[in-house]
Amino acid sequence: MLKEGLKKRDILKILDKKLSKDYRYSSGHILGSMCTAAHEFGREIYCKYVNKNLGDPGLFPGTAELEDEIIREIGELYNGKEIIGSFTTGGSEANLIAVRIAKELRPDINEPEMVLPISAHMSFDKSAELLGIKLRKTQLKDNFQLDKEHFKSLINENTCLVVGIAGTTSLGLVDPIQEIGRMIENKDIFFHVDAAFGGFVLPFLKDLGYKIPEWDFHVDQVDSITADPHKMGLNVIPSGGIFLRNKNIIQKTGFEIPYLAGGNFKHLHIVGTRPGGPVISFWALMKYLGMNGFKKILNKCMENTRYLCEGIKEIEGIRLATEPVMNIVGITTESGESICELDEELRKLHWMLGKFEDFNLIRIVIMPHITTSHLSKFIKDLENVVKKLGL
Ligand SMILES: Cc1ncc(COP(=O)(O)O)c(C=O)c1O
Questions:
Q1: Shared domain check, 108 and 54
Q2: What is the mean pLDDT of each run of 10 residues along the chain (391 residues)?
Q3: Which residues contact 287 (CB under 8 A, 6 or more apart)?
Q4: What is the CATH number of the domain that holds 321?
Q5: Domain that holds residue 308
């Protein structure tokens, strides 16, 4: 550590230099991220309220009220009534909270298990390891849809949790949530839906007239949902969310910290100190954009998704892994040859995509920072690389 501090001006210069290595959303090169540049208004609000700490809500009751209000409002967007829950650091923490609740609710099971699709996010593997739960992974069919018979066959007397995905990480597909619900009807099994990405896509797509299967609290058996404002909610990082149907869950399964300056309260979080800024910024963003604002942004992403798909269909040697349901596009090779080299070559040209080796696909998430002009350049490069590799 320096003995004497530097001048602010000099520090800014050093930072500018060091951070010039980072990729910028505005370059269009970030094609494989589920995050994007935070909305300008949200950023402004976040900076104003950066000191709010929801780890001690008794000291910040105004912020805590805004959180309850926004959780209820988002819960209504998911067809729930008086939904409870809270903001988290992201989808991973929200999923971990859901897995823990499911385990806590079934103390009678000695060797608890969860049944989930193989397409589920890694956060479930992490949760299973941390909580000592066995993972029972369901295979997918050739078209990447869940193999329902296999899923059902894995449910047994040790199952404390079933998981469905509404917007898979790899392809943005929606699992058959209603059918999973029917599989556990009248069974004491917790049902969690991971809509970390889809949570701020599906309600708007539905309103835009897209045919969307039921995936939320409309399905009676769904107990909880993960949905992340820092993905398609365009909010600042970190902001995920866990939404719960049963009001008594916090009392039943929450932790209590005895020493807080603001007084005791029960909570489900893994973290203690917790930023209030992202809650306030998302509250403001929802008020500012409204349903129509979010729909407009998503509509543009879907237009760009179609544009990219048309481009991919014109290139011999590669194809769409599946028709996109939302603004996520998977590319695979026509011959079944590995996509690894294609990914590597595109990376050399600074196109940063997501690679899913298990499914042999590379993934593009058409976030709001990606324009038609970025995609047009990408399609040209993609075509050249495919030719060069002789795919
Ligand atoms: C479906 C799904 N769930 C959970 C997560 C984890 O979210 P986070 O990175 O915010 O922890 C992701 C991240 O991509 C995701 O796609």
A1: yes
A2: 97 98 97 98 98 97 98 98 97 98 98 98 98 98 97 98 98 98 98 98 98 97 98 98 96 93 94 97 98 98 98 98 98 97 98 97 98 98 97 92
A3: none
A4: 3.90.1150.10
A5: 23-37+298-389
Candidates 186, 179, 76, 119; CA nearest to 321 is 119
Whether 360 is covered by a domain: the verdict is yes
End-to-end Cα separation, the chain, in angstroms: 53
Atom of ligand 1 nearest to the CA of 165: 1
Question: Does the C-beta of 89 come closer than 6 Å to ligand 1?
Answer: no
Buried b or exposed e, range 78-117, using 16+ CB within 10 angstroms? bebeebbbbbbbbbbbbbbbbbbbbbbbeeebeebbbbbb
Residues 164 and 307 in one domain: no
Phi/psi for 235 (5° steps) reads -90, 170
Same-domain pairing of 94 and 237: yes
Q: Are residues 51 and 82 in the same domain?
A: yes
34 lines ligand 1 (CB under 6 A): yes
pTM for the complete prediction?
0.97
Ligand 1 within 6 A of 92 CB? yes
Q: Is residue 293 part of a domain?
A: no
